[in-house]
Structures are given as structure tokens and as C-alpha cells.
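SAMPLE LOG
Freezer: B-3
Tube label: C17
Construct: single chain, 263 aa
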Amino acid sequence: MRKALIAIVIVGAVVFFVRKSCVSSYVGTTWCQVRKEVKQQISTKFEMDRVRHEIANLEGDIGNMIRPIAEYMAAIGRLRKDISALETKLDEQKTTMLSLTKSLEGNPEFITLENQKYSSERIRRKLQADFHAYKQGETHLKGQMKLLEHKETSLKGAQDQLAKVISKKREYELRLAQLEAEEEMLQVARLGSKLQLDDSRATQIEAALSEIEHRLNVQKHQIELYNGEFAKDIVPTQRTSPTTVDLSTIRQHLENSATASKN
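STRUCTURE (predicted):
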């Protein structure tokens, strides 16, 4: 009994899974079909307007990229100035320390600096402190130079990315303009095709024009008949007095003509 229940549960789960999978498949297929049909119903002009809107949005993306890059460039410029100032300072310290080391050569007891007399021991201590600060300055300079190199590399990457976006925007604008020109040509071609294929309308127009021409010709001939040469030949009918016929004369003439023919 237990095995039978387990088998029923397993079969039910399989049936449920199959049905659920089929329903999901049907729903997914239907949705894809609907999306495809809806997309096909969208006019080409509407799609071009949508693409033009998306290209315009790239301008905002470019603006968002330009601001951080400009700030990065300003920061790099400031860092370069700091490095240049640090290099100048280290060069001055280096010159001063070299001068002190030369003054201490020969192990003198006193050294005169800027008209002031100092003990050699004091100068040695100062030289030791200045040298320690100089080495720290060198370490800091190396770090700043590495930071500058890193920032310049990052800036180069950002500038390249910005150039690509600008180039793509111009490419998209050019392609859209070409497609719009092609669409206009196709509209003209479709208009010509519609005029050629609409025979019924052309036939109606042709018949109407022929009827108008016929009416005008009839009216023209009517005017010619009333005002032309034919009007001159028309003799108006007038009333005349009854004609008197001499019947005896006619009869005598006809009888004489018949006698003469027999002889």
C-alpha cells in the first residue's frame, strides 16, 4: 500500500511537471508571437523616429561623460604642477647639500655660510636632517609620479571611450539619414505602383474625361449648325395661295403624247 501511494505521488508529480512545462512553453511561444506581430505592425517612420530619439539621448550620455573627464583633466594638471614644484624643491635641496658636503671636506672646525660662522658639527647635523627630508621627498615624488601615470592611463581610457561614443553617434546619425532617404525613395516608388495598379479608378477618370469631351463636341457642333453656312441654306416656309390647275390642258397633252407613240 505504501509503495502504491509513493508511486501515485511520483506519477502525479511527473504529470504536474509536464503540464506546467507545456503551459509555460505555450505561454512563452504565444508571447513571442505577439511581440513579433506587434513589432511588424509598427511603421518604419515611427521606428525611425524612435531611433532618432535614442540617438538624441546619446548627447546626454556624452555630456555625463565629459564632465568627469574634464574634472579628471583638471586634477591631473594640478598634480603635474605639484610634481614640478616638488622636483624644483628637491633640486634646490640637492644643490644646497652638495655645497655643504664640499664645505665639510677636510674636516674644518667652523664653516661660514651667508656671512655667518657655524660649527662643523652643527652643519653636519643640519646636513643629516636635510638629507633625511630629501630622501622622503624623493619617495613622495616617486609616488606622485606613479599616481600621475595611473591617472593619465585612466584618462586615456576615458577619452578613448568618449571618442568611441561620439563616433558611434555620428555613425548612427549618418546611417539614419541614409535610411530616411531610402524610405522617401521607396514611398515614391510605392506611390507610383499604387497608381499603376489602380485600374478601376483610372478607367473611371478616363470615361469621365471622354464623356466631357463628347458633350463639348456636341455643343460645338450645335453652335456651328446654328451659326455656320448651313443656316444660310434654310428657307423659311411661307403661306401661298392655292395653285390653279388646268386639267383639260394636261389631259389633252397626255392623250396626244400617247397617240404619237403608237404611230
